[in-house]
């Protein structure tokens, strides 16, 4: 379902600005979104549980709802509601994004890659114009986090990794040990 959802119809759906036009989503896309949302909800429940235990939670993405059609924005905001499944999907997605606003991370690492390097790394996925726009959108998102660190990801992978580890260790040292 995920592979099929990445076809041109997926790009067309995602390219329509939020709220401008309501769109009928294909059935396979709805089922794919159902699977994605259920997985995301399960991950959030686990994060709440692990955070309560004083554990460190690392996530490679964090949802946001302030910059439409940018990084990890809700995907169903322009879907026509034609069935109970549609209503369920939209309501589930809204609940997930509201819970993400409450469950703020202590540390947010933003790996900033220049548009030129983005195009070199993914030549089949990006052109320079879209890479410039994607970077601008990423840096404009008002991320909800206590501490936000931007890391220059144009450097060698080992340098970028070590900078990330240093920042995580600083956050752990700042927080100190948590009671069990």
Query: What are the segments in which pLDDT stays under 50 over at least 5 consecutive residues?
Result: none
Rg of Cα set? 18 Å
Percent of residues in helices comes to 40-55%
Largest sheet: 2 strands, parallel
Distance between the termini: 42 Å
What is the arithmetic mean of pLDDT? 82
Order of helices and strands: HHHHEHHEH
- Could you say which structural class the secondary elements and strand pairing correspond to? mainly alpha
Sequence of strands across the biggest β-sheet: 1-2
Strand coverage percent: 5-15%
How many E strands? 2
Task: State the helix count.
Answer: 7
Gross morphology is flat
What does this structure look like?
With 180 residues, the chain is mainly α. The longest helix has 26 residues, at 27-52. The chain contains seven helices and two strands, in the order H-H-H-H-E-H-H-E-H.
List keywords for this structure.
2 strands; about 180 residues; flat; mainly alpha; two-stranded parallel ribbon; about 55% helix
Compile the SSE list and pairings:
Layout: H1 2-5, H2 8-15, H3 27-52, H4 84-102, E1 107-112, H5 115-121, H6 128-140, E2 147-152, H7 157-175
Parallel strand pairs: 1-2
Helix pairs in contact: 3-4, 5-6
In short:
By secondary structure, the protein is mainly alpha-helical. It has helices at residues 2-5, 8-15, 27-52, 84-102, 115-121, 128-140, 157-175; strands spanning 107-112, 147-152.
